[in-house]
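Lab manual, section 2.4: Encoding a predicted structure.

Procedure: take the sequence of the chain (236 residues), apply the prediction step described in section 2.3, and record the output as structure tokens. A sample record is shown.
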Amino acid sequence: MTDKTIHIEGVGEITFVVNERSRRVRLSIKSNGNIVVSMPESVSHRDALRFVESKIDWIKTHKSKLKAKETVFEPGIGFRTRFHKLAITKGNTEKVYNRVGNGTIQIFIPERVNHLQPRVQEFIKDTLITVMRWEAKVYLPKRLKELAAKHGFSYQNVSIKNASTRWGSCSSTNNINLNLHLMRLPEHLIDYVLMHELVHTVVKNHGDKFWLLLEQCYPNARKADKEMNKYRTQTF
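Recorded output:
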């Protein structure tokens, strides 16, 4: 049995992780919104899925609470990406527009317009996604290649995604997907996610062999894994 991810309508992606140390099925929702089911080897995915289906209402309630914590973009927010900082300015302008350059994502909003309006918030979010996608394409493939060469890993292709639940993934054919929201993380956690996926090119589950190899390449990997819980794959 291996880790498995399924999509449930109205809930999203749920990852089932087989853990030989588990004695029962456990359901958890990480602070980043990821839904994880830890299950003993003796439990089938079908039975684990039935357990999840019995908890749908609880999952939706918990996810609603997380959604309430989504970022509201306003002047002075201090939001940063890997290479840029966000600056929101209200003033004498006729329309909402952006300007990106010199390390700044500048958003201009007319004085008369409420920056909390959904259309304004969506404009800011779309701008940030565009910038982070560019940053990710410039930074992540190069850094992944460096870490792979340093530690002796190989992979097929690398893609940048705007994923809702995962920081990264590695397919059975060793194609690696990376989330553009990595551009909001500290450098050491970006490296942790990249090494995590590189190790998956060798070990396809999260068993002891996986963590042993990851710790050899990235000391204190479990500490970094816990630190990742402070961040959500998408804050908006």
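Check your result against the sample. The chain has a mean pLDDT of 91.
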